[in-house]
Description:
Layout: H1 2-22, H2 24-28, H3 32-47, H4 52-71, H5 77-87, E1 91-93, H6 100-103, H7 105-112, E2 118-122, H8 125-141, E3 146-148, H9 160-167, E4 171-175, H10 176-186, E5 202-206, H11 208-214, E6 219-226, H12 233-241, E7 248-251, E8 254-257, H13 259-268, H14 280-294, E9 302-305, E10 308-311, H15 329-337, E11 345-352, H16 353-357, E12 362-367, H17 374-381, E13 385-387, E14 397-398, E15 402-404, H18 407-423, E16 428-432, H19 435-447, E17 453-455, H20 460-468, E18 476-480, H21 495-498, E19 501-506, H22 512-519, E20 529-536, H23 540-545, E21 559-560, H24 563-610, H25 616-633, H26 640-650, H27 667-689, H28 692-727, H29 735-764, E22 766-769, E23 775-778
Parallel strand pairs: 1-12, 1-13, 2-4, 2-5, 3-4, 5-12, 14-20, 15-20, 16-18, 16-19, 17-18, 19-20
Antiparallel strand pairs: 6-11, 7-8, 9-10, 15-21, 22-23
Helix pairs in contact: 1-4, 1-5, 3-4, 4-7, 5-7, 12-14, 12-15, 14-15, 24-28, 24-29, 25-27, 25-29, 28-29
Amino acid sequence: MNKIKNAWKIRKLKQDLEKINQLAxxxxxxxxxxxxxxxxxxxxxxxxxxxxxxxLPEAYAAMREAMKRRIGIYLYDVxxxxxxxxYEGMIAxxxxxxxxxxxxxxxxxxxxxxxxSTILMTTNEYLARRDGTxxxxxxxxxxxxxxxxxPDRPGKRMKSREKKRIYAADIVYTTNGTLGFDYLxxxxxSSREDRYLRPFDFVIVDEADAVLLDxxxxxxxxxxxxxxxxxxxxxxxxFVTTLKDEDYQIKEKDVWLTDSGIKKAEKFFEIRDLYxxxxxxxxxHIMLALRAHHIFRKxxxxxxxxxxxxxxxxxxxxxxxxxxxxxxxxxAIEAKEHVKHTNVHxxxxxxxxQDFFRLFPRVAGMTGTALVNEAEFLEIYGMETVGIPTxxxxxxxxxxxxxxxxxxxxxxxVMEYLxxxxxxxxxxxxxxxxxxxxxxxxxxxxxAEIPHNVLNAHHVAKEALMIAEAGRxxxxxxxxxxxxxxxxxxxxxxxxxxxxxxxxGVGRMPNxxxxxxxxxxxxxxxxxxxxxFFVSLEDKVVQEHGRxxxxxxxxxxxxxxxxxxxxxxxxxxxxxxxxxxxxxxxxMEYGESMRRQRELVYQTRRQIQEIDAFSVQELMKIEQEVIxxxxxxxxxxxxxxxxxxxxxxxxxxxxxxxxDERDVDTPEQVERYLRETAYVQLMEKLRxxxxxKMQTEYLRNMILKAVDEAWIEEVDYMQxxxxxxxxxxxxxxxxxxxxxxxxxxxYDYMRRRVKQQMMRNILLGEIRFDKEGNLEMIMP
Length: 780
């Protein structure tokens, strides 16, 4: 059925392909100046009302001809099909070596003609710079501007002015992380003049499965001021090391205390009823320490370098620079490894990639393995997937997977096979799931005196270069599963006649997509090649998701031939993939509340930035709401002293008068007094500011400060609440429902707090002018 559906999609795309091919001769007959002039002509026609679909065949044909003249690349028909799929907002599956980088040029050019934001997003800065540098001159030759959104050197910070220049370009090449953080940072700016992003429109995501699925749950977090540091991390870590197996229980990616563990905790910390609300911080720190010891593994989830905890991407093994776990988990791991504790910072802004890409009206993606995730792309992003035929038939030989009882037997089989291949001179690429296995294989190769390269994914540019050279005769390269993605392995002269690249996969991968990516390294563009996987019952996927009865076969080292056992291993992989999908679905469901709140808060900020003059009447309406809330909470006579304290804390440090007891006998009198006092203070502030421009600048900054402070508290609270709820997911309660209910209450509280804080900022803020007459504002 899927093949029939895919064939139907291709047939539909071929209708436009025929139109483009019919225009090829016309475009090739144009002089350079005439071809370049087509861009301005296309723009005029779009402005005059021609539809994009009508113009598309001409625009594609023109840029196809420009590519032939400027970079010597004339796109194949299958690449045009991919380009058409991308412009329709599909995920295009194009096998390794089919030229995805060049395919993206046509839809980028077409969308840029409309004047709307056009972005290509890659997985790392090296690829963004490589592709933007290579293709920028082509776009410029055709009259479009093209910029690279990543800094030209690591660690460089770009100012708003430079970012504005970058994002003003017709086409931008950047990374998902860079654009995501720029989006969050822009929504922390005070002035509309400092904003640099154009409204999002069209984005093409390179390596779409890695970004839209594998990294979907990864949160982008802007951290702010540190919280007060807890002194419980070390003592709780020591307590957790005293526990025995019966004191805690582990299920999948969570761990909790059993009854015996709870009793030991109460005795250790000399408290009663651990789970009463009074000891929330003890419970939280115990959970963090348990996860640090039993869920997060050294050299898999993190490494210790220079007395620091550095997180690893579990798929690639890359160190995640400037990234920390949130809500105290990072500090719990620091306590476990006995390194210096870093500060726990508040999350000022946060968004997952899953939510980020839903901000774009039009998203397209390309990758070598999309069809295996077709249903999930449609469910989460509403995107259709299409498999693009290869330009030449794939002649790679995919050998049957070999199965072993133990890791030792598996690695012995790998080495025996590798040595046989290496003797022929064929290049070999060994692909593993973890860094640890790459290191073991490297040691075995050293013992066998075989020169080789190992990619531990710490340096992306070097990694890409080493992957590109993996096609040399006699080369042996060992890498993690997705190291060097985006870089083709081209066969050296003579390698093809030997049989091409041999890919050896070690271990059952968490999902089929990763295995297909690995196999696709060989046999690009019709080259010869082969692939084979070696799997054992001690592979992580089988250990975590296979049936326990399989472990009885691990008592001896041997190869397995039982079809039943093979089916059990395949079942473990399906369970692993389904749990990954379930986790992404859960992230989307839990993230819905934050997504809606974020949209409302950011929309409110933009509206505040656009206001040219604030109304005194509207401000006093808000102040009246604040005052009424205070009065309603103090219906019983609060007394002159409490009222005086409220005035000094919320309205004025130097009120015109304080009330007599007889002036505030009733709630109505209290409300009238507070309203009159606030009005006098507001008018005095506006008098001090003088000009309407100064008044607007002051009011805008004071209001935005209140919004930002309340939103930072809300983001931080939602993150901690989500962590708490997820740790209770095995109870019989509907934690998702309770989470959304609590977050809704929290949002209502945040809105009230914003109104209270903005009026407090306005009324109590200090106004100063420097020698040049510039306004200086000091928050209360």
